[in-house]
Amino acid sequence: MSEEIKIGLETHLQLLTDSKLFCGCPTTGEDNPNSRVCPTCLGMPGARPRLNKRAVEMGIKVALALGCETPEEMNFSRKTYFYPDMPKNFQITQFSVPVGKNGEVTMELDGKEKTVRIKRVHIEEDPGKTKHVGGAVTSSDYVLVDYNRSGIPLCEIVTEPDLKSPEEARAFLRKLADIFEYLEVYDSSDEGTIRSDANVSTGGERAEVKNITGFKDTEKALRYEIRRQENLKKRGREVERETRAYDDSSGTTKSLRTKEEEADYGYIFEPDLTKIEIRSDWKERLGEEIPELPHEKKKRYVKEHGLSKEMAAAICSDFDLAKCFEALAKEKDTKLVGNILSGPVKKVLNYNEIRFKESELNREKLRKVVEMVESDEITERNAEMIIRDIAVEDKDPEKVKEEKGFGKVTGDKLEGTVEEVVKANKEAVKDYKQGKDEALNHLVGQIMKKSGGNADPQDARKLLMERIEE
Length: 470
Ligand code: ZN
Ligand code: MN
Prior knowledge:
Elements: E1 6-14, H1 53-65, E2 73-74, E3 77-80, E4 90-93, E5 100-109, E6 112-125, E7 129-133, E8 142-146, E9 153-159, H2 166-182, E10 194-201, E11 207-213, H3 215-234, E12 242-247, E13 252-258, E14 268-269, E15 276-277, H4 280-288, H5 294-305, H6 309-316, H7 319-331, H8 334-352, H9 363-374, H10 380-392, H11 397-403, H12 411-424, H13 426-433, H14 438-450, H15 457-468
Parallel strand pairs: 11-12
Antiparallel strand pairs: 1-9, 1-10, 2-15, 3-4, 3-14, 5-6, 6-9, 7-8, 10-11, 12-13
Helix pairs in contact: 2-3, 5-6, 6-8, 7-8, 8-10, 9-10, 12-14, 12-15, 13-14, 14-15
Zinc ion binds near residues 20, 23 and 25.
């Protein structure tokens, strides 16, 4: 990929409020189309917006957590455009004075730190949702509109074009979602609520790719768009400045229109809302409510609990997993808890693409698993197998242990197995004595096999060496 790749993201995250941004309609509940609507979120003439204070507070917290400057006074504006998802023909958003400006997010990718500058953070209402029936955006037979989403509060984060690859963009979004989750202003179990528009340039003009949902699709859409631009250049053609739509079914981007300028939106102040004063005592109180953020937590886990950076990062990337770690680390061996949570637990969550809180795991079940390992009832390998089972089904770890016949082989029984393996593998023993270290791995493997995976490989290795060196 070219050195000149520049990606800027405009990402919308849904703020976790009970009611919409400018009316009392609930943000969740009844799912029938157009069942959670009122004259305000339907944009009826004469209906006026009333601002949701919780949403504003969440926006201020986000701005502070991202290290932004916040204004003493802010306001909302009307962004005018015509589209069926926007019943009043304008979106109430922030334009000249957003809730935050000039912040930054530091993330980690392949062990390297990278800082992305945040241009602005603003609060706005979500439009309704259009459903294209019988085809994609440009080929459907007709379009249905659902206004349940109309007026849901969003927080939009606009970055500078600091991202250099699709992988970086994905890591950035993950980090952003983690921070929102720590602030408890966002439900990160639903990737569908994180939507981005991406500005992509590969040296020439930039194209904007609209409406990309989730982390994976962002990476995919960007990869496609970069390849498209590079292919154009190879054929001696110029990249045009335009707006493109991402089509997730084909994984491609298609031209929508030549890019509109800000002036095309005819921004004006929203005359139905007053200015909002952000007094310093209010700001201070909200600042105090900001918890320890993922990067701070990670540093503390390394320093205080002696976890490796990788282990700490794995645990801190899931707020509820981190809470579980902190609770168990107080009662049990911290290293062991860290091993199990950053290893098998994280692995099974990633594999199933779920967050800790969506799994069947909880503190009590994991405490039992840790206890069984601590008391030598099972091996860490057994623990991993048990966790795989109890993560997706509500099962008792001890029952799973019995069902699967897990139980750590120790003492005389392990010595007996070692003895058997030594006798049955005279060649390998001889090889090891002559300095072939890999022969030892083979022997340990045999012990593991004979014990049905119930021996601890470390113990087996130790006993084996003692036995052979006798
Ligand atoms: Zn409403
Ligand atoms: Mn927006």
